[in-house]
Give the backbone structure.
Amino acid sequence: MSTRIVFRPTSEGSPNFLSKPFPAPLERGLEANLSVFLIPARTDTRWFHDIVLPKAKEIRFIRGRLKFGEATNSAPFPSMVVVFERKGEL
């Protein structure tokens, strides 16, 4: 069984892997039996409507903005947890 959990760091130096029209990590996540993503809730983007909305088993929007560890500021965007599951594989 293949399981992927992907957490996108929000630090300024982190790569913005969701900036492409069809983000490779989301597409690769569809290949695993179970994939869980913590990602920005960008519901106005092509990748949300073409990949997340039609293919996710579950989407959970997180109330408020995330703050990690001892950070003084919270994330500048809302977040969501997205679960992809290949049918018949689990």
